[in-house]
Design goal:
By secondary structure, the chain is of the alpha/beta class. 38% of the residues lie in helices and 25% in strands. The protein has 2 domains: 2-118 and 275-289, Rossmann fold (3-Layer(aba) Sandwich); 122-271, Dihydrodipicolinate Reductase, domain 2, CATH 3.30.360.10. It has helices at 10-22, 35-45, 53-57, 71-83, 98-111, 120-123, 125-136, 174-190, 274-285, 296-312, 319-322, and strands at 2-6, 26-31, 48-49, 64-67, 88-91, 115-118, 142-150, 195-203, 206-215, 221-227, 236-240, 243-247, 255-260, 264-268. The two termini are 31 Å apart.
């Protein structure tokens, strides 16, 4: 499938390298607010550098649009792409708030155009295997989930080079950038909780550490954390009645370990970003307007959970990036 990239930063380059290596996708065009990085991207990945977002999206060969700009720009960029009737795969966090996500879902439906969140974890074959095992019931019901995604203090050293990590106008903070992963992981296995509680530690005006608990009517609880402040284990553990499912580095899972009273089994498949693009193409070719892996209602649920975390801690972003027009 031939994609237009909106954004040309570090993540865009990492994804582009994997797509081209797969041999299944091409990058037809690129636009970025930074012409210098867009030019470098275009030269490296064989894409056409465009002077405007509209020019990049409407290039004749473009079949799908990949939005990989800061969170604060997602709402605007997705909206503009949908109005041009182009299928859109948008990076997480999908938007700044749930209302924006709802408006984009409504627009996608109106335009009869495919829209999907690029939550690579959900498309990962190892995570899909873990989901298959949990849903099979062979280990009984889920009792609890532990999932954390935390970076060390050294991460701060690169803040000045990446304003999206510290500038509220870009949607800075641990929650939208990395907290979305443990929340989405737990939601995948247990769905929408009865409640979520969140404690935020603030630094320079945004959340640098989030501790969250998702509670369910059957008694299951998810203990989650996300941080730019300190290193904690990135191994997710799903405790079940008859065993456990262990996923090291769960957000980019390369293997899954399943332990029961009688055995330990390990499953491993290549991870990476290409799986979400492969599925996006399948859904596009099938004429779907939503992903068959992650629906827009699920994306909206996750945004609602993060909205609630911010509400509990009186954490708001500047009006210009929270608004819906």
């Amino acid at each position: 499938m031939k994609f237009c990239f909106i954004g040309s930063g570090m993540l865009a380059r990492r994804v582009a390298g994997q797509l081209l290596k797969s041999g299944r996708h091409e990058i037809a065009s690129v636009w970025s607010r930074n012409p210098k990085t867009a030019k470098e991207f275009a030269e490296k990945f064989g894409a056409k550098q465009c002077d405007s977002l509209e020019q990049a999206i409407t290039s004749p060969e473009v079949e799908g649009v990949y939005i990989v700009t800061p969170h604060s720009a997602h709402y605007e960029h997705v909206k503009r792409a949908l109005l041009l009737n182009k299928p859109v795969l948008c990076e997480k966090a999908f938007t700044i708030n749930a209302l924006q996500a709802e408006k984009l879902a409504e627009l996608a439906k109106k335009q009869n155009t495919l829209l999907c969140e690029a939550m690579w974890t959900w498309f990962n074959p190892n995570i899909q295997k873990a989901l298959e095992i949990v849903k099979s019931g062979e280990l009984g019901k889920v009792k609890s989930i532990s999932a954390k995604l935390c970076f060390s203090d050294k991460f701060r050293a690169i803040f000045e080079k990446r304003p999206r990590l510290y500038d509220l106008n870009y949607g800075a903070g641990s929650l939208l950038d990395v907290g979305v992963y443990p929340i989405a992981f737990s939601y995948l296995f247990l769905g929408m909780p009865e409640s979520i509680s969140c404690e935020m530690k603030m630094w320079h005006g945004f959340d640098e550490y989030d501790k969250m608990v998702m509670s369910y009517s059957g008694g299951a609880k998810c203990h989650l954390a996300a941080s730019y402040r300190k290193i904690e284990s990135e191994t997710a553990v799903i405790e079940m009645e008859k065993g456990k499912v262990i996923v090291p580095f769960f957000h980019k899972a390369r293997k899954v370990k399943v332990k029961s009273a009688s055995s330990t089994k390990v499953y491993s498949s290549p991870g990476g970003y290409v799986h979400e693009f492969d599925q996006f193409e399948k859904d596009y070719r099938a004429g779907r307007t939503e992903s068959s892996i992650i629906s827009l209602s699920q994306t909206i649920d996750i945004m609602k959970l993060m909205d609630e975390c911010r509400r509990q801690n009186d954490f708001v972003y500047p009006e210009q990036i929270e608004k819906v027009d």
